[in-house]
Amino acid sequence: MKKIEKKDIMRFLYRLAGIKPPQGSRIREMGEKGDEQSSDSDIATRPVVQLLVWVPILGAMPIATYLSTRDAEATKTSFFVVWDLLKSPLIVYFVNFYILHRLFFQHRYWLFALLNLVLILCLNYQFFWMFIHRHDLPNMPEMTPNMWIGFFSGFLMFLLLNCMVAAIAIGIRHFIRTRQIRQQLKDEQAKHTEAELAWLKNQINPHFLFNTLNNISSLCQIDADAAQDAIAQLSDLLRYAMYETNKKTVPIQGEVEFMRNYIELMKLRCNDKTEVLTTFKVEQYIEIAPLLFISLIENAFKHGVSSNRPSKIDIHLEAEGDKLVFTCDNTNYPKDDADRSGSGIGLENTRRRLELMYHEAYEWEQALYRSTSQGENDIYHVKITIQL
């Protein structure tokens, strides 16, 4: 016999409620694999489960009668009494829950009310049969005003009870439907977010390649051998960018190695007046979104290095408690309009990915200030703090 595990119980409860488990959960993944095989059984399961809810209601009085009297005949009688009282509400409930609810949610309220009234009157046919044939029934007493009042009072009570049952059925159906709609909206939003993240990450690759090839092209005019080494390094970087970053998050060690290699590649183009400092202090267990900081490093080399003036780039990545802090400070040499191709794309891309991945669990700081230690040059400062 198969052992029932917690995940099986949770999956059953989600099915009973008529909603899907959260996006990305193990229960959701299991459910998606078996949806084609279990969809029909799910439809059959819910009525059975709801019938099981009614069983205690139908059986409470007969069980109590048997326990108190031990009389089988009395127990049988009490069961039929309860059945006579509850069969109409039971039918009204299931007809509304599985059939007539469609009319209600389509805003066809008049037809919904009319069909419910016809259903209730048909279930109450005994009253009308007795009223129509009262003169033909033997020993039927003459209807007195009090009997008329009792007759119509009983009918109104019956009508009110069944209307309440119909309202309960629609209310439960509405609750399940609302949960389903909300879950679908969450799923669609999650899919949209995943698609946008994939698009943003795919945008990084050509942008990163464009800037790197520009550097190698310039290097070819200075040192052909160094350019050849740079192309070999670029192939390693592209291999990581294309094949190791297909997940939502990746180990930070791989990202650190990628950033180090990229920085070394960019330094080939720098002259002796450029100082590049790097500090990486992170734990191996940390995972982050792939290629998250590469655009900021690209930006630092693109706008922070001058061919004839002192330049400095200081890149720092460190885990501080439950936070990951990335800072980048670089001298700022604004490009002219002819040399601003692709400018700003990387920063916008990074900010949008942070919003989608970390929502409110990140902070972005950027500033431009004057530094006397760098010959009165402006320093561009950017700092990202991510709550892990």
Description:
This protein has 388 residues and is an alpha+beta fold. It has helices at residues 6-17, 26-69, 72-105, 109-123, 125-132, 145-222, 224-243, 252-267, 294-304, 345-358, and strands spanning 250-251, 274-281, 287-288, 311-320, 323-331, 362-371, 377-387. A five-stranded mixed sheet has the order 2-4-5-7-6, covered by helices on one side. A two-stranded antiparallel ribbon has the order 1-3. Strand 4 (311-320) and strand 5 form a beta hairpin. Helix 1 (6-17) crosses helix 2 and helix 3 runs antiparallel to helix 4. The longest helix is centred in the middle third of the chain and has 78 residues, at 145-222. It is rod-shaped, with a radius of gyration of 37 Å. The chain starts with 5 loop residues before the first helix and ends with a strand. The model is unreliable at 29-45 (pLDDT under 50).
How are the SSEs placed, and which strands pair?
Layout (H helix, E strand, L loop, with lengths): L5 H12 L8 H44 L2 H34 L3 H15 L1 H8 L12 H78 L1 H20 L6 E2 H16 L6 E8 L5 E2 L5 H11 L6 E10 L2 E9 L13 H14 L3 E10 L5 E11 L1
Parallel strand pairs: 2-4
Antiparallel strand pairs: 1-3, 4-5, 5-7, 6-7
Helix pairs in contact: 1-2, 2-3, 3-4, 3-6, 4-6, 6-7, 6-10, 7-8, 9-10
Concise account of the structure shown:
The chain has helices at residues 6-17, 26-69, 72-105, 109-123, 125-132, 145-222, 224-243, 252-267, 294-304, 345-358, and strands at 250-251, 274-281, 287-288, 311-320, 323-331, 362-371, 377-387.
